[in-house]
Amino acid sequence: MMLEMKVPSPGESITEVEIAEWLVSDGDYVEKDQAxxxxxxxxxxxxxxxxxxGTITLxxxxxxxxxxxxxxxxxxxxxxxxxxxxxxxxxxxEKKEAPKKEEPKPVEVKKETYASGTxxxxxxxxxxxxxxxxSAITGTGRDGRITKDDAVKAVPAMGSPTGGxxxxxxxxLSMLRRKVAERLVAAKNDTAMLTTFNEVDMSPIxxxxxxxxxxxxxxxxxxxxxxxxxxxxxxxxxEMYPAVNSMIDGKEMLxxxxxxxxxxxxxxxxxxxxxxxxxENLTFRGVExxxxxxxxxxREGEITVDEMTGGTFTITNGGVFGSxxxxxIINPPQSAILGMHNIVERPIVRDxxxxxxxxxxxxxxxxxxxxxxxxxxxxLVAVKEALENxxxxxxxxxxxxxxxx
Length: 405
Hints:
Dihydrolipoamide Transferase; 3 domains; CATH 2.40.50.100; Chloramphenicol Acetyltransferase; 4-stranded antiparallel beta sheet; alpha+beta
């Protein structure tokens, strides 16, 4: 029986996928549920499992865009699994006598001169100093020989590289990368995007992590990172400035009473943005555990479309790559995104004295159509205040209780 394998729907609103890579070859015998291909949608990369065991016939090439429901391969379920003892590989191959190599005929070898061998010794020296190839010069001497005068008059082409690698590689963008590109351009073109900046003294968080990180990890099995502090600070600020937790829907503004925080993660297929659902209900341990779970799934290519769908606000951390300052692009249809950056010791004024402190620059990009400057600046200041006073504003003055939950 010949089974037609069709492209399953990877999620709502997805009508097309791209064959990223076949994991089997045409004519291979596959087992039921064996991964036979990786397919890219505009949101994620998914594995396509074999529906039955049998011999496979591929009906699409790598890089092909196929609609959901189209046939991508056939599986002959009547085919028997090959027996290793009967395969040709098991039979000893007859040794074929290697063809005798012909003895090379003696060839008269001419001693080459500079490049094409048509330059005089004096000319060669001048051309070497100018880094000019003899093949680029037309000689005026006898039989086209390049003379010293020809070399002196030769002028190297301005800006033209000589002798360097001039190769190039062309590769097709994956469907996921193309969709990301479309969304980023749309975000720039369709929103009135502005960015406001501030700086955060990370000293209080450094002190808390230094004091409690070992006990936190021993108790909960996850590290006490910066993301939990930023997520909690963002949730607090979103509750204070609900316009930042809103979206434009036609002629209406849709405001959410929950905080689904998207976390930008760099995966093997590019940038992915899994969502922490109802972050307002999570403890420090809950946030760290969810960040770790989603990051691992994204980097191992196991993240699902549902885990990246939605989100009311995004946090992106360019600091892990060394970024000092940036203007993050809004993740549509959201209206704002917070950019974290690297932490660098900088001189600041504290209580009238100049001190050195670990400082992080933060940036909030927002859609000015529904978020005013007062709200955007107020939101970022609220984030700054919470991060610089986490014990009081994020932990209700009970640090141990907040980290033990």
